Amino acid sequence: MSVLAKFIRNTPLRGLQSYFNAQGIDLPEAVNWSGEEADIVKPLLVAVDDLTDEQRAKIAVDSERITEMTDEVGQTALLSVVSERDHLESLENAYDRSLWVFLNEPAAFRRAEEVRYTDHYRQGRMWDGLLGPEGVVVSTHPDHHDDLKERIRDYFRTDNAKVEVYQRTRPNFDEPDSNLVQIMVYREGLPDSYLEFQGEDLARRHRRPVYEAVLTYEADSGVIEVVAQGRECRADLARMFSETLLRREIEAEHVPLRRFDLSRLLRPHDFPTEPEDAIETVDLVLLRLQPYDGEGERYTIEVNRKTNATIHEVARRRFGDTDPLAGSNRVTRAKLSIRFFPDADSRRGKVLPVTITMPNGCDLKGKTEKERLIGEKYLARWGLVEEI
Fold first, then answer.
1. Coil vs helix vs strand at 350
2. What is the mean pLDDT of the segment spanning 110-123?
């Protein structure tokens, strides 16, 4: 199913009608907005196919932007910036909420896209966390913002740069939401060109691409986070931001890294949870071991859901006195299987696999916002995380 068709099939009719009215697109009489939903979707899809190439392309681009914000990360981003949060939460589904912000608060929608981009790449390869001053109010003075833009132009040797600063939040499980200031940095890159068709002929079009970087500042902790291409520039961006908008000089030291300690998994281990998170079971299903005296050797023990025994019981039964979990080995990788109770979205109960690799690798970054928050909450609670 195309993104456009998915958008039309999943968005309530009221919202779809508002969208097409806002775009000024006249649809044929076959699209009867007062009819039953099942009788409207098909004629609407046919009507969209009959639009001009330009109109159809515009709807396709809008559909992609709206649909991208319907996952949990996107919905959290929308709620973090929208002005009418109570109204947004009352709407029918994620497509309804995403479309409403797209139509009624376009500036907030674009900011939510930026928030989603920031949180998606957070703690990834494009990210650095740096220590800044605590408790400082970010300046709103136009001269200070101009100073930052000038510093960016000089640093990247470009004539054009733009800076946007706004307030947002980041959800936490055990504590109140974090209050952040997000700074979007746009700069013009070197000239580029690409081929396009002009009729039946090829022509080369020239452009100057725009590159973006994102900074967030949390006054309570003093942490400045930077998402940008090029590791060497992130600390410099943090310094420029701090010196211009915080009016403080900083060393831009990196924040303490999270490191995992999997040694306690060599023994049977409890994984307590809280009822409100609707977790039914937590099972340790894989351990990869490395002997202390054998750098090039690896052992992997794995069980699946069909095995009623725990991984420790299987190891004792199979290996007896040579049980690798009782020997001189260290855990280099572990996999947990977190099963949720059945709900409306999953009759069998959704299973969240979490793989942890020493010293600080974890695949939670690629999960949804809810899964990532639950995983991070419990990894620390289960004693698998330490800070360095």
1. coil
2. 85
Strand, helix or coil for residue 238: helix
pLDDT tens sequence across 160-214: 999 999 988 887 654 577 899 999 999 998 888 888 888 888 989 888 888 999 9
Adjacent-strand bridge partners of 201: 198
d(CA 65, CA 13): 19
Burial of 250-285, coded b for 16+ CB within 10 Å and e otherwise, reads bebeebeebebebeebbeeeeeebeeeeebeebbbb
* Token pair recorded at residue 182: 């997000």
Residues 6 or more apart in contact with residue 4 via CB below 8 angstroms: 48, 59, 60, 63
Residue with tokens 């907005």: 33
Q: Are 279 and 339 in contact (CB under 8 A)?
A: yes
* Other beta carbons less than 10 A from residue 314's beta carbon: 17
Rounded CA-CA distance 49/117 in Å is 31
Whether the Cβ atoms of residue 185 and residue 163 lie closer than 8 Å to each other: yes
Residue 264, CA atoms < 13 Å, CB-side half-sphere: 12
- Tell me the three state secondary structure of residue 234: helix
* CA gap 281, 372 in Å, rounded: 17
Distance of CA 161 to the CA centre of its chain: 26
Token pair of 183 as six digits: 């700074």
Which one-letter DSSP state was computed for residue 228? -
Taking CA atoms, 153 is separated from 143, 146, 181, 216, 217, in Å, by 15, 10, 22, 20, 21
DSSP assignment letter at 366 = G
DSSP string, 140-159: --HHHHHHHHHHHHHHHT-S
Cα of first residue to Cα of last residue in the chain, in angstroms, is 47
For 249, phi then psi, to 5°, come to -90, 140
